[in-house]
Amino acid sequence: MLGHSHATSGALAWSAAAVALPVTVLTYPAVQAGVAHLGPVDLVLGALLTAGAALLPDADHPNSSIAHVLGPVSYLACTIISKAAGGHRKATHSLAFVAAVTYGTWAGVHWLGKPFTLALVFFLLALAVRALHLCPGGDGARSWGTVVVLAASGTFVMDHWLADKPSWLPFAVGLGSLAHILGDCLTDRGCRLFWPLDTRVRLPIIERTGNFVETWVISPLFVVGTLAVLWYAITRQP
């Protein structure tokens, strides 16, 4: 699947989870006693950040959207990760990766607090900006420079809304990564979901990445679905 499809699937997954799951699941293990639901700000911010997190598994691909989001810096990082992961759709496209980024986010938020949170928010916003085509195309400085400016501006705004330790952030990061992996399982190549085992899980519904159905049907439906569910979640609250 394309980066845009991954991002929109992540946003939809967050919106659906926020409606269907109790807040104790969304904030586990930092259970929020006495909180019945997330507020409107958390719902919208969660959708944006989960959209960005849905690109994280592609850190194993030097030509992916995440590799070019911050120019040479992200390209070098993804090149290193690709070699360490053994190539594309291996270690970073597994349930083990989902568990690692979820726990890593919880540890960072819990032990490092707001500096870690804002750094992660900046990076996830940068990924969302890139994947949702809110910046010029290409891999040049004009593209990633715009990403940096927009992500930094968004992070500055979020700094006034986010708690020092947003308890739902680990869930959002893990959910976005899982949405990406499950999406790739819908292609013929599939994913090594249970890495390091060699078995690939696949349900080839999408014949070719970026085809008409994915670009003009599936991805727009994800966007419409996200907006509809967020509207429902926000308006139903007392």
TrEMBL record:
Transmembrane segments: 12-31, 37-56, 91-109, 115-132, 144-163, 216-234
Signal peptide residues on this chain, from the entry's feature table: none
GO molecular function: hydrolase activity
Keyword Transmembrane attributed: yes
InterPro entries for the chain: YdjM-like
Keywords: Hydrolase, Membrane, Transmembrane, Transmembrane helix
Superkingdom of origin organism: Bacteria
Pfam families per UniProt: YdjM (PF04307)
Protein name: Metal-dependent hydrolase
Species for this entry: Nocardia bovistercoris
Source lineage: Bacteria, Bacillati, Actinomycetota, Actinomycetes, Mycobacteriales
